[in-house]
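Sanity check

After download, print the first record. It should look like this:
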Amino acid sequence: MKRTYESTSMEIERLEAEQHKLLNRGTEADKGTVLKAQGQIDQLRKIQNELYAAEKQEFREAVARSVPVGGLEYSDPAREDLRTYLRTGDAQNSSMGDTSVFTVPEPLIQELVDKVYNESPIYSNARVFKLDQGQSPVIYLPTKESHSTVTWAASDVATRAETTAPTFGQVKLEAIDIYDYVWATQTLLDSSDIEKIILDDLAGSIMQGMNGKFCIGTGSNEPLGIFANVSGDNAYTAVASGSNDALVAAKLIEAAHTLPSAYQPRAKWYMAPATLSTIAQMSRGTTLTTYPLIEYGPNGSVQMLGKPVVLVDDAPAIGNGAYPVAYGDLSKGYAIAEHRGFSVLRNPFDPPYVKFYGMTRVNGTPWDNQAIVLCKSDA
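Expected structure tokens:
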């Protein structure tokens, strides 16, 4: 059977569901299976992204040829129900249940997820665990703390001594509420695409808040950020520049080679645009020949020491004691729990505006602390 984006997505969901059961069971025997499943999921996600790009191109070509393409119509019941609720506060189906909160139905949720995935530099590169509505918002992620000890045999028939079993720890990740609100006038509510306007605004505001905390959150009732994971048992490795309030080319090169080889194939650099501007003016090499650290490619692509650079607006600025640059495989080093559900509450009691609250559950935490290396702009 031909593999498609949809069939690959279903396969990923099946593996994630099995992985989630094993994570909740949390036995030592299951943890090795979870790590193996993680590798399969990562490979399928790579295939999924390739299929998505191919199918999107096929869709564009079909539109260009004026070929009808099947899909949701703008007037489908889910959209109509949400549009009615946003304008009047009423809903025709059971989406609201016994409360005044409208639970956004599929496929509208998928549109929000796609928006966040495509626009968030952290969300699109980290490992995202999707928790369906009704599932527990808590998962436990295994971490490998030590490897088994390999034992050599003297001959084919020699006695085999017992090897030392690997040891595992775990990281708790609990999706917590994040919310924001937007205002709208009655004139705006009469727009034909009001549901898209409101949901896009809410999703954009919440995404901006998530990105900031995924970078520098404290971990107290909010995510522990990538650039803030500098202490504790699961802290990332850090390479100091040796110079206050500055980054040094030699130390950036050292950081790149500090990352273990197992994480190098998918490693990327993460930094703010201003930090990239500073590093772009540095060079490497001998006294006879120098080379820039940064190389610019077509369509605005940027590489540093041969690895992609991801711009993160919320990454810390260069400064004394700051960690403005991260390097590594974020899909192994940072985990996000997304409780699949998005609710909207309509508040008409603030004339002349109608206020809409949007809420979802999400959280993030460092996972494999060997997968990320931080660069410190300090001695």
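If your output differs, re-run the checksum step. Summary of this record's structure: The first helix runs from residue 5 to 25.
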